[in-house]
Amino acid sequence: PLLASWSPWVVVAVRILQGLVTSPTMPSLSPLTIKWSPQTERAKFVSISQSGGTIGPVITYPLCGVIMDNLGWDKVFYFTGALALVWCLLWYFLVTDDPSTHPWITSDEIDHIMQGRGGLNFQEKDGSNPDGRAEPSLLLLLWKIVSTPYVWVCVACEFAYCWGLYAILVLGPTYMDEVIVEDGDNKFTKNALLTILPFIATSICCQIFGFFSDVLISRNILSPIKNQKLFVTLTMFPPAVCLLIMAFFSRDPIFTIVLITIGFAFNGAVGSGHIQNVLLLAPNRAGTFMGLSNGFGNISGALTPLVASYILYDSGLDVVVGWRVFFATASVFYLAAWVIFILFAGDRQQPFDTYYVKKQEEESLVS
Predict the structure, then answer these.
(1) Are 289 and 30 in contact (CB under 8 A)?
(2) Could you say which of 23, 110, 160, 279 would form a disulfide bridge with 337 (CB–CB 3.0 to 4.6 Å)?
């Protein structure tokens, strides 16, 4: 709030800085997932750990609405900033890189995790591999990753998923304001309460999907790749259909909210879908892989408001028609990513995940 009183460009600069310092969050979760979860419990682990992204709006939307109605918009930033500091302290004192280094874990828990997480190739303390080879440079490793076609299948899914997520998360309040909520007392509170319903559905359903995904794997009912294709279908197809239907019934507030909520409920399957494929293709370098994939996903976060602004305000379309076109665009991305994953997803660990070089080899490759 203080920076906003100085200049809007200062706010833009700080927002960019926020994006830079928070960017390691999602990539850092993938190595932790690999090290902290047995393979037969991995979908539940991902679903629970990533549900904060949906539980957060469930709590903050109505809370911030109440704060804005009663204390003013600037107090929202002070409150959420304080919560972030509390989270940092909890993370610092409670989280470790590996189960074996956690001070409060039991030996039975360590054995359960270690025996079930699969064979992984961890580095020595000097950064070398056990056989003496070294980790390649970041640029060389990234080249190996982007040269792998299966990587782009996951990137396409992450981009489409994030586009649909940002379409509601970022533009949802505007949509509710222009189409659903009428002017009146406590407008912000009403808007927030209506907007959180999809996130409540996602928060609940992601746990259900994670449980059933692990059951299918642990009982050998489906292979990992077939299991992932099933849950990618649930992640992408129902939300696409719901948004397409909603695009032609956007004047009906009840029906619109129901469709958004149903679509977001199926979005909860993401932790058992293409995110699991990232861990399957690259268990040793899941962080780097997820960083690349999530980076493209966040590009959609930058593009979504720009595309929405053009469609809604610069294209000359009626407001309702503009929203129909915008949500139909999200549906197209969902369906395209679904088809790509079903046809082209990889089903085994990729060569870049076990790629190491000798010192002189890396120097020659970089030069």
Answers:
(1) yes
(2) 160
